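ok so I'm stuck.
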Amino acid sequence: MTASAAPPALLHAVGDRALAWLDANREHFRLTDEDRATGRGIVERLKPVGELAVNMRVLSREGVAGSRQHEASTRLLDFAWRDLLDGGNLLAELQRQEPMSPVPLEIYASLYELGHRHPGLEAAINLARTTVSWQALEMMPNRRLGVLNAERKIGLMPSGDREQALAATWLGRLPEPWTVQLHIAYHITHTVFHLTDWGADPDGIPPAVADYLARYLPAWLEDWAELEHWDLVGELLVVDACLPRPTLDADVWGRYAAAQGPDGAVPVQGKLPEGDPATVFDEVHHPTLVAAFASAMATSRALSADVAA
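replied:
not stuck anymore, here's the structure
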């Protein structure tokens, strides 16, 4: 029996609450004085800033944000660029310190699409890309897709072949679906994010891969929802919304929405943690960012009449 689709109001409400929590807790995205002084963990601390930028790009692109979401997303984007990244100077400094790191490029790509520019950072990225080392960097195949996509987004010739990168991923080989484990599932989700440019192009998924996902994604969603792994469920819901014909399963979305706290935060697994606000932020910012992403994509697709019958 075909699952019924979740109502757009429920899909939108999840993102509205998530964005409100992210806005209320935005100071916790900031690098600490210790981070800056020691340099330890700066890349890890910048990852959520990049994820925040991706979310703001998705909300802007899909055009499904209400007035409250639009105001919050504008505040968050300005805060990320001006305060968290010092107008791009922090990314430029990181690129100079670690010239072979693709992290500044990956973070900058979404901000570039939203109109922000830093010529010094672009010059440092271009210099790194002239080296053989840049193309020889060893990384997960799905990460390679992300780097190629980021290069394309800022107007650079991709440093590798997209089809070859896809063929090297787990998903590109269409393996036995019962072999999916936690880390493989995350590789699947990110492969889809990069193939579709974070949901902008559902047709970016090759037909054979899209058919494979349409067949097996519902079972994976059910399994991880039963385990209450809400961070992964959120990412898999994004994958569903990226498919040519998403299901937007009402039952899974209902359970996902029920796991969200009244303030908008979403737990990684099980229930929301309690304790020091900064510690709680570190634990739940990712699943809450994912919830905002999933909501924007699913709401947009629900309103587009592309949902599978």
